[in-house]
């Protein structure tokens, strides 16, 4: 006989201000362990020093940091074999999130090492190149950089002027690359150059005669990051320095797409840091006899910030699941970078208004994140370029060469 008692509904968990959408339920134990490990490392190892590094415009311990990140498995972590961790794309995204929550420069170190330099070697290199470089790079014992952007060619890499010509059995490279993360501390540079047969990737050891890395000074952004100009003055390389699969412009663009995926997560780390700072500050800062968190306009700002932050995290998770399933398209990465960096900047700027004058002090992370995100907004594809990528995908019409 059927019971007249209605089925009991499962109890709802309490509302968590740190996770209002319950996104942690989308993560498994391995995901949560990796996030916890990197968050604790970043809080202990980077957070106490990064404001000073930013103010000084240098990271004095970059090689030590690289080795420690290597021991965490954070370098080239989604790659398989050769000492790489073989982690999921979602787990890599969580690492980017936690690293950029302390500073974009630290996430950039990992992103360029793993998603650009190591990824290029892993995907396009010979077995000998992989054996030589990937294990030491995964351990952080060697640092890599990625030379595509030039002083006069950023959004249009097809116009690059750096050239490689044959001289007997060797290659000779001449040209300049600009805004290269890790450049001055790199042991190897992945350099893209124009040959008679088209674009070709090369591995250039930093001790090659004619190769010079010049630190970029007077930056107002990414100051806790090594940024350099690379000069190649007749750098002679053996034939086996060329990446066998690294031909055509599609090769470096594939690397960029992979790195942009990390930015989709990382930008939300910077946004979370600013949101947390604003929420805590609003609860303790008193004006007109009560905390400013009790005023309607402040609550409206906090609510809007929380909405965009957690929408961005949900988008990042969705793209990560698609990447793990082998279904992520470059246009979808463009959508993620365009949205999340743009919204992260707005969250940081709103946090600045809540903190008032204190928002410009390096005692708080807000102004530092704002400055960093101005670079993140334009590197690895400006907002306008990603808008045009989406515009072409939506309309079928190419506006790049309009």
Automatic annotation (TrEMBL):
Q: Which metal ions or organic cofactors does this protein require, according to UniProt?
A: FAD
Q: Which GO terms describe its molecular function?
A: fatty-acyl-CoA binding; flavin adenine dinucleotide binding; glutaryl-CoA dehydrogenase activity
Which family does this protein fall into? Belongs to the acyl-CoA dehydrogenase family.
Q: Which domain of life is it from?
A: Bacteria
Family annotation (Gene3D superfamilies): Acyl-CoA dehydrogenase/oxidase, N-terminal domain (1.10.540.10), Butyryl-CoA Dehydrogenase, subunit A, domain 2 (2.40.110.10), Butyryl-CoA Dehydrogenase, subunit A, domain 3 (1.20.140.10)
Q: Which GO terms describe its biological process?
A: fatty acid beta-oxidation using acyl-CoA dehydrogenase; fatty-acyl-CoA biosynthetic process
Chain ranges of the Acyl-CoA oxidase/dehydrogenase middle domain: 145-235
- Please name the SUPFAM superfamilies in this protein's record: Acyl-CoA dehydrogenase C-terminal domain-like, Acyl-CoA dehydrogenase NM domain-like
What is the protein's given name? Answer: Acyl-CoA dehydrogenase
InterPro entries to which the protein is assigned, alphabetical: Acyl-CoA_Oxase/DH_mid-dom, Acyl-CoA_Oxase/DH_mid-dom_sf, AcylCo_DH-like_C, AcylCo_DH/oxidase_C, AcylCoA_DH/ox_N, AcylCoA_DH/ox_N_sf, AcylCoA_DH/oxidase_NM_dom_sf, Glutaryl-CoA_DH_mitochondrial
Q: Which residues form the Acyl-CoA dehydrogenase/oxidase N-terminal domain?
A: 30-141
Please give the organism.
Streptomyces radicis
Give the residue ranges for region: Disordered.
1-22
Keywords tagged on the record: FAD, Flavoprotein, Oxidoreductase, Transit peptide
What residue stretches are annotated with the Acyl-CoA dehydrogenase/oxidase C-terminal domain? Answer: 246-394
Q: Name one Pfam family in it.
A: Acyl-CoA_dh_1
Q: Is Nucleus given among the entry's keywords? A: no
């Amino acid at each position: 006989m059927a019971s007249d008692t209605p089925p009991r509904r499962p109890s709802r968990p309490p509302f968590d201000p740190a996770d209002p959408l319950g996104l942690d339920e989308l993560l498994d134990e391995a995901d949560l362990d990796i996030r916890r490990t990197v968050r604790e490392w970043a809080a202990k190892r980077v957070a106490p020093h990064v404001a000073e590094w930013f103010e000084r415009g240098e990271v004095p311990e970059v090689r030590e940091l690289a080795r420690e990140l290597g021991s965490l498995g954070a370098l080239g972590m989604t790659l398989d074999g050769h000492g790489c961790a073989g982690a999921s794309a979602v787990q890599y995204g969580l690492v980017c999130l936690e690293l950029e929550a302390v500073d974009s420069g630290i996430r950039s170190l990992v992103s360029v090492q793993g998603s650009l330099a190591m990824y290029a070697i892993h995907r396009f290199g010979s077995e000998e190149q992989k054996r030589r470089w990937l294990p030491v790079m995964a351990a952080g014992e060697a640092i890599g950089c990625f030379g595509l952007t030039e002083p006069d060619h950023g959004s249009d890499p097809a116009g690059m002027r750096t050239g490689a010509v044959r001289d007997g059995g060797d290659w000779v490279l001449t040209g300049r690359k600009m805004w290269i993360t890790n450049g001055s501390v790199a042991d190897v540079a992945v350099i893209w150059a124009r040959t008679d047969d088209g674009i070709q990737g090369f591995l250039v050891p930093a001790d090659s005669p004619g190769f010079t890395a010049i630190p970029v000074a007077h930056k107002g952004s990414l100051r806790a990051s090594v940024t350099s100009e690379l000069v190649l003055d007749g750098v002679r390389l053996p034939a086996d320095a060329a990446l066998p699969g690294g031909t055509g412009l599609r090769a470096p663009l594939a690397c960029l797409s992979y790195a942009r995926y990390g930015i989709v997560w990382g930008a939300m780390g910077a946004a979370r840091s600013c949101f947390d700072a604003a929420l805590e500050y609003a609860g303790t800062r008193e004006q007109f006899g009560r905390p400013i968190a009790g005023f309607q306009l402040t609550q409206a700002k906090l609510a809007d910030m929380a909405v965009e932050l957690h929408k961005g995290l949900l988008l990042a998770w969705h793209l990560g699941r698609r990447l793990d399933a082998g279904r992520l398209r470059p246009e979808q990465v463009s959508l993620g970078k365009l949205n999340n960096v743009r919204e992260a900047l707005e969250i940081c700027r709103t946090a600045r208004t809540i903190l008032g004058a204190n928002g410009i002090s390096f005692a708080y992370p807000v102004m530092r994140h704002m400055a960093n995100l101005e670079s993140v907004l334009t590197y690895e594809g400006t907002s306008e370029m990603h808008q045009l990528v989406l515009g072409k995908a939506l309309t079928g019409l190419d506006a790049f060469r309009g």
